[in-house]
What does this fold into?
Amino acid sequence: MEVKNKAVRIDLFNFSTRPMRAFHMTWFAFFLCFFAWFGIAPLMAIIREELGLTKAQIGNTIIASVAITIFARFLIGWFCDRFGPRQVYTWLLILGSLPVMGIGFAKDYETFLLFRLGIGAIGASFVITQYHTSVMFAPNCVGTANATSAGWGNLGGGVTQMIMPLVFGAFVWLGFSNFWSWRLSMVVAGVVCLITGICYYFLTTDYPNGNRKELVASGEIPEHIEKQKGTFWMAAKDSRSWALFVLYAACFGIELTINNIAALYFTDYFKLGLATAGLVAGLFGLMNLFARTLGGVVGDYFGDKGGLRGRVKWLFLSIFIEGIALLLFSKMSILPMAIGTMIIFSLFVQMSEGATFSVVPFISKRALGSVAGIVGAGGNVGAVAAGFLFRQENLAWPDALFILGFLVIGASFFAFLVRFSPADELAAKGEFDAAVDERNKTIKESLIRLPDLSILKPMDLLRVYLGVALTIKGIYFVTNMGVIEGMARQIGQFENLIAWFVVTAHTVGGLCLILGLATRVAAAANVVVLFGALLFVHSAEGLFSSSQGFEFSLFVLFTLCLVLWKGSGRFSFDHYFEQGKS
It folds into this structure.
């Protein structure tokens, strides 16, 4: 079926069009699914003690959380081809919320494992997310749309590492025991998923030109297409689907594994507390704020310059570097070095995911959902395979990560099995050029044109410098949480919450400023931090103190206000996304 009226650009702040409503609803729904899927991971130190879980049993729960998703993703892709993404997402969110809330009834290892298995089904939401954005956006920006919606959804895996310990702490503060607090925390996550499922039904459509049922009734979707069968087998017979299956196992499978083990890894090997370990682990997932988008943007750029083969070359390169970065991370024993290499590793993991799904929409239009389901399931197969390494009693987790690094490097060469015929290349180029021409009717610059150094302005330099400084300060606070918590106590309450906000604003906000992504949001968050520092921390020092902390913080606050006022500059992703709005 040829989908009509696809969006030719991504207008982030436009909620009036069907493609953009679907874009925002699908990433938010996926975010909540990821949040609930891994919501139990940062609380495992508490649950391990309460239920008396062994290392092997924890490994089994990790495997269970991703194993069921393999079958769910195969099935959900076929459902999208048959029924459209709107109804499928609605029912997945509503039904998936039940085991999320139900895990609160777990009383021993067996029941905990069973509910963990059930929760994994909501991981199939990824396939619907990629299907929905693929049918809503044209070839010139589909890679960016897929990568951004999935990346912001994956962000839930990082946010949950930070938020769930806070929700747990809030219930403890209200007087509940540890026994009840972690259970009630999961109930909260499940209820939000349930509400979002209902909203998804009423706020989205299946395609840019309407819902599937309406289009069938009007004859726009022919009856023989509506009843078509065999799309799954069509996708399964295509060897490129399985090559991408392996490649996605090497990136998304690794991300799932790290989301499950990161908090315990930093607790056991770096002796961090529950809150600090959750914060450090959260930094891995928070890279999804921009990293997966970056992978899709570069994929679209390579697609412009080198066609479909160009997209595949970028996919190989990103996964190959990911494997090297994982090898380095596995050997780090000093906390700041471990955090730094983890961030680099995370960047390429998530860029590889974006690169993969900048290729997927071009494998088969008729069987798009089934191809997405097969490739998406590959990520979970990779996570299950990796899970067996982490359940071995005689294998240290750093050694398991080292082995995974070599496996990822080997898997990257599967990219060369993803090939396209000259006819495919020609058709893709025609669609790409047509989408760019359509976009250029309303704007002067092509979406896929990246800025060059000749347009670099002073605000760009100031923003990047400020981002680097804030990121370094954030990493310092992560490795010295006692310092920031001590400062927060001067306010009197919620020192953990304040400390986490400061670290997140500095680290993630700093990275966003470096890349020029969501710069005003990042600047605003850090303005709040610097204003609080001036008011509650440095005001007692006054002017002309030996540390000159007041003067320096005032200068940083001033530069942040400049960024908040003037925006990101032309050499930025914000400009890249917004250049067609006027």
Observations:
- DSSP finds 25 helices and no strands in the chain.
- The longest helix spans residues 291-330.
- Residues 265 and 470 are 26 Å apart (CA to CA).
